[in-house]
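[Automated response] Your request has been received and processed.

Submitted sequence:
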Amino acid sequence: MRSVGAGWLSRGPGIVRGRVVSSVVVIGLGVVLGLVGPVAGKFDNGVCGALSVAFSGGWPWACFAFLVGLSRTSKAEAALLASFGLAAGVVAYYLFKDAYPARGGVGGGVSSKVLTWGVAAFLFGAPVGVVGNLARTPGLGGLFFRLLVPLIAWFETSQRLRMEAEGQSAVVQGTWAVVRVGAWLVAALLVGHTVWGWWRGRSGRADASARGL
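Generated structure:
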């Protein structure tokens, strides 16, 4: 018993250190997520314009929270890290927008925006992080969860193309169209990969049963 306890205690600092590092990395990536769109929007070229348009939507934020959850083995950790990461991104986004307002715009009012959208991001991050964690379930059981982000991206860009495309530039419309097609392709690949894995497993079990007979 003493050796088991000593072993657990010796591993304790390593576990804590690993979780601290994971938290710092996720929060840092959340800051990057929040800065990509507004920073890219400061450059006058097609690639940066497309990046700014893509990251101004909600689906990249959902994708971030999902991937954080996918990378964690604990649902509680997935929820907390996804929430804190998104909240950090919101803070970085609005601080940058306040420090470098758009041409003709003015800064100010950042506190209320950070508070409102930071709380919203924190609340939104937890369930999406848990969904990402559930997407680790192999086979058909986790397929629905793995399809969440492509469905969000497809729905959001479809709505934007239907309701907001008029008067937008070719870069904006093209970016939305590319994201929508990409969402379909990712969804198709996920479904195909899952079905193929299920079929291979089924065939393998059938072959094993035949050899047993």
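Summary generated for your ticket: Residues 59 and 153 are 5 Å apart (CA to CA). The chain has two domains: 1-136, 137-213.
If you did not submit this request, please reply to this message.
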